[in-house]
Amino acid sequence: MGKVVGAFATSHILMGSPEGDEAAQRIVKGLDDIGARIRALEPDVVYLISSDHLFNINLKLQPPFTVGIADSYTPLGDMDIPRNPIKGHRAAGHSLCKRAYASGFDPAMMEELNPDHGIMVPMMYINGGEADIPLVPILVNINMDPPPTAQRCFGFGTALKDCITHDLPDDMRVVVVGTGGLSHWINIERHGEVDAEADKAILELFKARELETIAAMSTEEILGKLGNGGLETCNWLMAAATADALDPEVIYYEAMPHWLTGMGGMAFTR
Amino acid sequence: MAAQDTYRVNRMVQDLFAKPDMMALFQEDRAALYDRYELSQRQRDAVDTCKQDALASVGVHPILMMHLFLASDPAAADHISVKAYLPSGGSAHG
To answer: Cα separation of B24 and B19, whole Å?
Structure first.
């Protein structure tokens, strides 16, 4: 059986420059910290859960969940992200799909994916310019209407945990990362708002391991409290679902209205 | 507006970053691009104004509006970038 050695959650955008922006500098420090912690855990694979921003999964075909099963991924290059290919982990992706199908989920499998910033900003810090940790990308389609519910995301996260602990090879060390959020309203009513109180409330729920409470939130409730971009909190929920034996800790939080989003990061480690 | 009409304009926008020749048309010959996707005059006007309210009124997906803003506005693309966060040389991470 494999082992979840750590789970993490982090927002996945950067804007402007950290020069002269102390909040941005604290975010970078938080991302650096998360990356260093992950590398110190020496994982054999990282399952990274994100939304795709309609670059790979668009309106033509709208699967609720998609799992990457490729040997490598070439970044899309949005946000000027370098397009150096990163390693994939085919066997770990395939194992997840097999477990998911046995657990009432039917994710699409993806051979070709050009990860956008949702995956690549966290991966920049996870690899830190020195590592090349194999990746299994999991895409949650928060952009379809209706999107997968928080309850379904929690269930899929539980299936991921079962895959890791029952199906992966003995002694395989696994890190799970959920990315996106926190509150942001993108090109809808309340565009540009950040709700720091709602962000802190959701962080408290994660800290208190109130995952069932988050999972019970309706899509409408999440949209109302955290915005359409805040639906990415479901990615955090999936990561947290794999880490019920680990201790939650908030690494960073900054309300960033000039980035149109609340930015946060958490660790679930021993 | 019929749903199929709404999909036409979304399909055009989502193709911009997926198909370089469509992006080239967007930059160089928008009328030809609009013809290719059979956009209505209202849709053409909305894309031309590139304003949130106008785009919403013709059903452009909020995330695809972001694609359109990035394609239309070099300053926005320059702001929503990791360039200032990369180590010097810009290719060490990844």
So the answer is: 9
Q: How confident is the model at residue B2 (pLDDT cuts 50, 70, 90)?
A: low
pLDDT digits (tens, 9 = 90+) for A76-115: 999 999 999 999 999 999 999 999 999 999 999 999 999 9
Mean pLDDT of A229-257: 97
Any A CB within 8 A of B21 CB: no
Q: Which of B10, B79, B90 sits opposite A59 (nearest CB)?
A: B10
Nearest beta carbon to residue A16 from set B18, B67, B84: B84
* Residues of chain A neighbouring B85 (CB-CB closer than 8 A): 14, 17-18, 28, 124
Are A59 and B52 within 8 A, CB to CB? no
Neighbours of A67 (CB within 10 A): 26
Res. B88: pLDDT tops 70: no
H/E run at residue B69: helix B62-72
SS3 state of residue A99: helix
CB atoms within 10 A of CB A258: 14
User: How do residues A136-176 score in pLDDT, each as one tens digit?
Assistant: 999 999 999 999 999 999 999 999 999 999 999 999 999 99
pLDDT at B28: 97
A59: nearest CB among B14, B62, B87: B14
DSSP conformation letters of A173-236: EEEEEEE--SS---SSTTTT---HHHHHHHHHHHHTT-HHHHHT--HHHHHHHHTTGGGGHHHH
User: End-to-end CA distance of chain A, in Å?
Assistant: 19
Tell me whether A59 touches chain B (CB under 8 Å). Answer: yes
Tell me how crowded residue A143 is: count the other CB atoms within 10 A of its CB.
20
Reduced to 3 states (helix: H, G, I; strand: E, B; else coil), residue A255 is strand
**Mean pLDDT, all residues of chain A:** 98
Scanning the structure block, which residue is given the tokens 């079962």?
A162
